[in-house]
Every structure is written in structure tokens, then in C-alpha cells.
């Protein structure tokens, strides 16, 4: 078994690494990585619905889609992430989850933390979740990975993932909001996240025969960087892979009511309709036709509407107010 401590702290590179390990390395793999602030969304999730877009953008929080299912998670430098890649065989997913989370539980128990496996795929301490796990299968191999909240900023977790309730209507997997906790406060003797990483690696090396520490070669790094650049850091992957959804928002303003509905598929505006009791001089259909086919992206819509004066179509409504109605965000 190769044991890898990632040299990267960028989410695009680390998520690309998982695919690279799965597709390019033979044998079992165990790996650890830590990301700078980012949000990782599940394979089937709606990126627009799961994330507080304004907050993420204003706080330079990157967003990336992973290959496994499950819910959205926030990562920062206090969050240790781990994964196993092995042959799936005939084992059920719950059996695999338990088998490969057991070494992590043993480390925590040995450190004096009463951590247990809970529910379908969570690890908890005194009923509070500190780790969620997900899986992805490719041919005869399976990737099991999870988060370990060690000393993460839990306030950022809430702010980054708290999208406005009821704003979207879709069939995507919803993030399960759970009571969460960090590992560090439960340790009888405090240690650093780097110390914690080394203890886990030591446990893996002692538990699995033939396990050894592997350092990525220059070839490995270049392949991972190329994959990150061409796939995981692209808007098409993170947002274009979002399920088809319908968005609706109603705005009450000084002269009336504005009701906007947007139909989005693969990250592109397929249809946009505007209802309300407003007045205007020009036909608003000219504006909605202008927006069809654009990415569901605030900057793209803003650019397209630069030559347009919305107040001619909807009395007393500025371009900014109209755009904010389409991309209504909770920015705290």
C-alpha cells in the first residue's frame, strides 16, 4: 500500500490527485491532504443551491466538484482529509466504510477521544459529527474518502454552506445539516494537525503489510496539475455538472412586484421568465431573449445587460436590482 501525504493545499489539485491515484496507480492507496478554504460539493449536487455564493466569492473560498456522492463540505487548514483506494470485490459499501474508517477510530480512541462509527457513513464524538465519508467506484476499484474536522472554523462551515432555504426546486442531493464538532477540544493532550497526520500514517504503516510512504514524482505532479487545470478548476466541471434546476425569486419593490423564474441546464440559462405588476415602456421579452444561452453567472449576465437600461422595461428598477433578483445572495 502506498501512503501519500499530499504536497498540495489547493482543492483542485487534491481532488485531481484522487482521480490520478485511482486511475494511474496499481495496488492499494492511502492518502492525506489539507486544503486552504474551499467548498467541495458532491457529484450529484446543485452547486448553486448548496453554497452561499456571495459569501464564498467575497471570502475567496474556492469551489470544486468531486467524483463521489454525498453532501457539500467546507475545508480549511484545520480540516484533515483522508482516503483509501482498494479493490471493491464483493463487499458492500457499509462494510467497506467501516473497514477503512476503523484505523482512524483506533487512532482517536488511543488518543483518548470517544469516537464511534454512526449512521450510514459518519464518525461522531458524543453524538456530534466530525467526519463524513463518501465513495466512488471505477471498474473493480473503490475510493473511500472522508473529512476529519480537527480545528476547523465551524462558523465558516455554516456561512459557506448556508444557501437560502426554499430558493431552488431540484432533484439534487441535499446536504444534511448535522451537529458538528472538532476533534481538538476532545483530546486530553492537545496536538497539532500535523502530529495527528503522522500518527494516522504510523497506524496505517503498522496495520497493512507492505505499506510504505510514497512521495509524488515530478511526473505525478505534472499529471495532477494538468488534470486540475483541464477539468477540476473549470467552471464547466463544477457548475456545468449541476443537475437541471428551476430557480424562482420574488422581489417587492417601490412600484410593484417582480417574479423571476430561471430554467438552468448544465450551467446555462435555457429559459427566463419575468412576471409582476410592474409597468414599462419596452417589451421585456427583448431582455429575456438576450439572457438565454448565457452561463448562469452574475458577471456574464451583468456584461450582457450593460448596454440595456432596465428602467425602460420595468419602471424604477435599476440593472443592479434586476441582476440581484436573479442572483439573490445572502452575504454576511
SSE inventory with pairings:
Blueprint: E1 2-5, H1 11-24, E2 29-34, E3 38-41, H2 47-50, H3 53-58, E4 62-65, E5 73-75, E6 79-87, H4 93-110, E7 115-118, E8 122-125, E9 128-138, E10 141-149, H5 154-161, E11 168-170, H6 193-207, E12 212-213, H7 218-232, H8 235-238, E13 245-253, E14 256-265, E15 268-276, H9 285-291, H10 298-304, H11 319-326
Parallel strand pairs: 1-2, 1-12, 3-4
Antiparallel strand pairs: 2-6, 3-5, 6-10, 7-8, 8-9, 9-10, 11-13, 13-14, 14-15
Helix pairs in contact: 1-7
Care to describe what's here?
The chain is of the alpha+beta class. The protein folds into 2 domains: 2-238, 2-Layer Sandwich (BirA Bifunctional Protein, domain 2); 245-326, Enolase-like, domain 1. The protein contains 11 helices and 15 strands. It has helices spanning 11-24, 47-50, 53-58, 93-110, 154-161, 193-207, 218-232, 235-238, 285-291, 298-304, 319-326; strands spanning 2-5, 29-34, 38-41, 62-65, 73-75, 79-87, 115-118, 122-125, 128-138, 141-149, 168-170, 212-213, 245-253, 256-265, 268-276. The strands form 3 sheets. The chain has an 8-stranded mixed β-sheet, sandwiched between helices. A 4-stranded antiparallel β-sheet has the order 11-13-14-15. Strand 7 and strand 8 form a beta hairpin. Helix 1 (11-24) packs across helix 7 (218-232). The longest helix is centred in the first third of the chain and has 18 residues, at 93-110. The radius of gyration is 23 Å and the shape is elongated. The model has no long low-confidence stretch (mean pLDDT 86).
Amino acid at each position: 500500500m502506498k501512503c501519500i501525504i499530499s504536497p498540495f493545499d489547493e482543492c483542485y489539485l487534491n481532488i485531481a490527485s484522487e482521480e490520478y491515484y485511482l486511475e494511474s496507480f496499481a495496488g492499494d492507496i492511502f492518502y492525506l491532504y489539507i486544503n486552504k478554504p474551499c467548498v467541495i460539493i458532491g457529484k450529484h449536487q446543485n452547486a448553486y443551491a448548496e453554497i452561499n455564493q456571495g459569501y464564498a466569492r467575497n471570502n475567496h473560498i474556492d469551489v470544486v466538484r468531486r467524483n463521489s456522492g454525498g453532501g457539500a463540505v467546507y475545508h480549511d487548514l484545520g480540516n484533515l482529509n483522508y482516503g483509501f483506494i482498494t479493490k471493491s470485490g464483493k463487499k458492500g459499501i457499509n462494510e467497506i466504510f467501516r473497514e477503512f474508517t476503523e484505523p482512524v477510530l483506533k487512532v482517536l480512541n488511543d488518543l483518548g477521544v470517544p469516537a464511534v462509527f454512526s449512521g450510514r457513513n459518519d464518525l461522531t464524538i458524543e453524538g456530534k459529527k466530525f467526519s463524513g465519508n463518501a465513495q466512488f467506484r471505477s471498474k473493480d476499484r473503490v475510493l473511500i474518502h472522508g473529512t476529519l474536522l480537527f480545528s476547523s472554523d465551524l462558523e465558516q462551515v455554516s456561512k459557506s454552506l448556508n444557501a437560502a432555504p426554499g430558493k431552488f426546486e431540484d432533484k439534487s442531493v441535499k446536504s444534511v445539516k448535522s451537529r458538528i464538532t472538532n476533534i481538538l477540544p476532545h483530546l486530553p493532550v492537545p496536538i497539532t494537525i500535523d502530529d495527528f497526520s503522522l500518527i494516522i500514517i504510523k497506524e496505517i504503516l503498522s496495520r497493512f503489510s507492505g505499506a510504505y510512504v510514497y512521495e509524488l514524482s515530478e511526473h505525478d505532479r505534472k499529471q495532477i496539475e494538468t488534470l486540475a487545470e483541464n477539468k477540476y478548476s473549470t467552471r464547466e466541471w463544477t457548475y456545468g455538472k449541476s443537475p437541471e434546476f428551476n430557480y424562482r425569486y420574488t422581489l417587492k419593490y417601490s412600484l410593484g412586484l417582480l417574479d423571476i423564474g430561471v430554467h438552468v441546464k448544465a450551467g446555462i440559462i435555457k429559459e427566463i421568465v419575468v412576471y409582476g405588476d410592474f409597468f414599462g415602456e419596452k417589451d421585456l421579452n427583448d431582455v429575456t431573449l438576450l439572457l438565454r444561452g448565457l452561463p448562469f453567472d452574475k458577471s456574464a449576465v451583468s456584461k450582457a445587460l450593460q448596454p440595456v437600461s432596465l428602467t425602460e422595461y420595468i419602471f424604477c428598477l435599476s440593472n443592479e436590482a434586476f441582476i440581484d433578483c436573479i442572483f439573490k445572495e445572502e452575504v454576511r
